[in-house]
Specification:
CATH architecture: 3-Layer(aba) Sandwich
Structural class: alpha/beta
Strand content: 15-25%
CATH topology: Rossmann fold
Number of strands: 10
Shape: globular
Distance between the termini: 36 Å
Order of helices and strands: EEEHEEHEHHHEHHEHEEHH
Bound molecules: adenosine-5'-triphosphate, magnesium ion
Number of helices: 10
Strand order of the largest sheet: 6-7-8-3-9-10
């Protein structure tokens, strides 16, 4: 498949000498949301860190916007149009909201900033009145909104979001995540890792289930919503096979 989004082929990653991501193929198409589901320790965050250029690849290739970014460093990955909010990403608490966004925009041409800011405000109007506040003084939900906004600075082709909702109340999550639909409608592709599976399936068109480093299931969210037991079966297939291996 050839497209301007994210194309991952045969990606493997090791941590502490153990292969935790195994031969993963994955496409994130422009304007579409793909949910990546899987139990704790499945390897989702390790995959994300490898895509970000933080963890080395054992094998495989990564392409974004038609550029081969296999093995590139984080800055170079970002320049290709792949923006990543890794698990546990935090805003810079000492800086103002405005400066947090400017840090993310630092590689942009000067004139672009105003345009970027207007686009960010259209998605997150709440940030407009908070620009001069210290990021550390914001609520958890506002901080995650800012983290998401940072990812969107510079009009990436694809964003990867790893558990943005961790520690947030469901009501806050239900404000934050639907914005992703508008983001995707603007043409940005999204890989969404989200503990609230129902919310993820509502937002996404495609879903992948990862178990023990392997993609066990690829389906449209329509099919998974009609038969949620498919996800459970995929989870158990993983443990069953593991038992056989051990
Ligand atoms: N810093 C680390 N050093 C060594 N092994 C690690 C490290 N972080 C994670 N692992 C291991 O890598 C495997 C995959 O973990 P990973 O965090 O990628 O899973 P995950 O799918 O993101 O899980 P969760 O849903 O809990 O976030 C697990 O076996 C985990 O124990
Ligand atoms: Mg994780």
């Amino acid at each position: 498949m050839s497209h301007e989004g994210l194309i991952v082929r045969g990606l493997s990653v090791a941590r502490a000498g153990r292969e935790v991501v195994r031969a993963v193929d994955l496409d994130v198409l422009p304007g579409r949301i793909t949910a990546l589901l899987g139990p704790n320790g499945a390897g989702k965050s390790s995959l994300v860190l490898a895509l970000a250029g933080v963890l080395p690849l054992l094998a495989g290739t990564v392409q974004c916007g038609g550029t081969d970014i296999t093995g590139r460093r984080p800055e170079s990955v970002r320049r290709s149009g792949l923006a990543i909010a890794p698990e546990g990403h935090r805003v810079l608490a000492e800086l103002t909201v405005s400066d947090n966004l400017r840090v993310a925009a630092s590689s942009l041409p000067r004139g672009k900033w105003n345009e970027e800011r207007d686009r960010i405000f259209s998605w997150f109007p709440e940030l407009t009145g908070l620009m001069n506040q210290q990021a550390g003084s914001l609520s958890g939900g506002q901080q995650q909104m800012l983290a998401l906004a940072q990812t969107l600075v510079g009009t990436p082709r694809v964003i990867v979001i790893d558990e943005l909702s961790l520690g947030l109340a469901p009501i806050v999550v239900s404000r934050l995540l639907p914005t992703l639909k508008d983001v995707a409608a603007s043409g940005i592709g999204i890989l969404l890792i989200e503990q609230f599976t129902t919310v993820a399936l509502d937002l996404a068109q495609d879903a992948l289930v990862m178990v023990r480093g392997v993609i066990r299931l690829r389906e449209t969210t329509e099919v998974l919503q009609a038969d949620p037991s498919l996800i459970q079966v995929a989870y158990h297939l993983g443990s069953g096979e593991t038992k056989l291996r051990n």
